[in-house]
Amino acid sequence: MKRGGGAEGRRGRLVVRCGPVLAVVLVAAGSLHAQDTVRVGITYRPGVRPGLVVLPAPGLDSVQAIVARDLDYSDRFEVIPLTQPAPGQGSTGGSNPTINYAYFRALGAELAVDLAPATGTFVRMRLYDLAAEQVRGELVLPVDRSGSGEGRMSMHALSDEIVRLATGQPGIAATRVLFLNNEDRRIWRVDSDGGGLAPVTPAGTEAISPAWAPDGSKFAYSQLLKDGSKPIIVQTVSSGTRTVLPSTAASQNITPAFSPDGKSLLFARMSDAGARLYVVNVQDLCCVEPLTSGRFAENFSPAYSPDGRRVVFVSTRAGGQQIYTMAPDGTDQELLVPFDYGQTGNSNAPEWSPDGTTIAFHREVGGTPQVWIFDLAGRRPKQLTSSGRNEDPSWAPDSRHLVFVSNRTGRRQLFVVDTETNRVRQIMTPATSRLPAWSRSLSRTH
After folding, report:
1. Domain for residue 444, yes or no?
2. Contact, 18 vs 139, CB < 8 A?
């Protein structure tokens, strides 16, 4: 997303109220991020969803609607719809707004979000603690109020800052999912709430295996050429510039994965003898090195741990597809998620959660793939899905939500599951979809 020009377009104002103390901090509008979390006295308790209302916002109908939906999709609040104005509720746009605290508490709400136009393109947000009857946090951010196109991402960024202020946890609204559209064989993108659908790879080209760079500025994928080769392409999001990775132009290469610092990229190369994992310096476009032996075994679907110290991947070296781990230089290879001896089948598509605690993957159950997670501390697998065919999970940046592909509605579509509450929602896409990849937060770069 393009950010506004000039000092006003680049800066936002964050105001934090805690009791009688008022602190004002000037920050870059795109720089409110995990390390900048401001705690405002509302404690988030895992498993407990506080009631929240998003107040009517005259002149900001699109912003209000998108923010309310984003907060609902965060699964951290019980968003309570308002079917009628609160009795005695005055304007919330001034410096001394009238809030009917008792009415909103009677609805079951603990928090209220108030949005109002500010100077220029800015929007002012106030977060109310309804029990304490006071403002607990306020921020002012530039927001494209049109509700369409790239402007939607600024609204999603506002939603994520509300989540951060209220809970201290990262939001997932200002993110996108890449996926393969099976009809035109192109890579498409979609916002986390299902809006902003658009193809991102050129018309007339076939692609598979999309993978985001950590900063969201580019992505990689395998292009399928008519001669059978599958080069790895790195494409810039803003300009569409495409670069072929060294040594991949005339060979069959699949399942690319960026390192957490974006400097390296892992991929699998297929041959008559099997499939080997390779690493390439994607920053300098050089230095391709093999990491595994491909002789009589398939090694593919690599993914880095968030600290870059380990790699998880799939290998058939012991027969069926099992999940292994190794050091990023290919040493110290060991089995991570073994078979359970007859109860389930092959495993595939492992991905490390951003907090480093869990591996998501799909595994055959009765011959049908289902989404699983593997708790690394307890070494315990857990099946998340059971209805239909479910595969190719990818983590959201909150390490709580997964996007995956399911045919439970009749054709393969994208679905999102909250691993804490097991709530599932669908993301509608054209035709059938495959191979989703969820980005990290894009609020800084788009």
Report:
1. no
2. no
Q: Are residues 196 and 135 in the same domain?
A: no
Q: Are residues 240 and 219 in the same domain?
A: yes
Q: Is 3 helix (H, G, I), strand (E, B) or coil?
A: coil
DSSP labels, 191-256: ETTS---EE-SPTT-EEEEEEE-TTSSEEEEEEE-TTS-B-EEEEETTT--EEEPTT-TTSEEEEE
Nearest Cα neighbor of 328 from 426, 232, 261, 422 is 261
Q: For residue 151, what are the domain limits?
A: 6-167
Q: Say yes or no: 35 and 73 in one domain.
A: yes
The pTM (predicted TM-score) of the whole model is 0.87
Q: pLDDT of the chain along its 446 residues, tens only?
A: 332 333 333 333 333 333 332 233 333 333 333 333 333 444 545 557 899 999 999 889 999 999 999 999 999 999 999 988 777 665 555 555 688 999 999 999 999 999 999 999 999 999 999 999 999 999 999 999 877 777 899 999 999 999 999 999 999 999 999 999 999 999 999 999 999 999 999 999 999 999 999 999 999 999 999 999 999 999 999 999 999 999 999 999 999 999 999 999 999 999 888 899 999 999 999 999 999 986 788 999 999 999 999 999 999 998 889 999 999 999 999 999 987 756 778 999 999 999 999 999 999 999 999 999 999 999 999 999 999 999 999 999 999 999 999 999 999 999 999 999 999 999 999 999 999 999 999 985 33
Q: What is the CATH classification number for the domain harbouring 135?
A: 3.40.50.800
Report, in this order, helix, strand and coil percent for the chain, each rounded to 5: 10, 40, 50
Which residues, including other chains, have CB under 8 Å from residue 383's CB and lie 6 or more apart?
A: 363, 365, 370, 371, 372
408 and 312, same structural domain? Answer: yes
Does residue 94 share a domain with residue 240?
A: no
For 312-337, give one letter per residue: b (16+ CB within 10 A) or e. bbbbbbeeebbbbbbebebeebeebb
Residues 305 and 223 both lie in one domain: yes
Q: Are residues 325 and 419 in the same domain?
A: yes
Q: How many domains does the chain have?
A: 2
Answer whether 121's CB lies under 8 Å from 63's CB: no
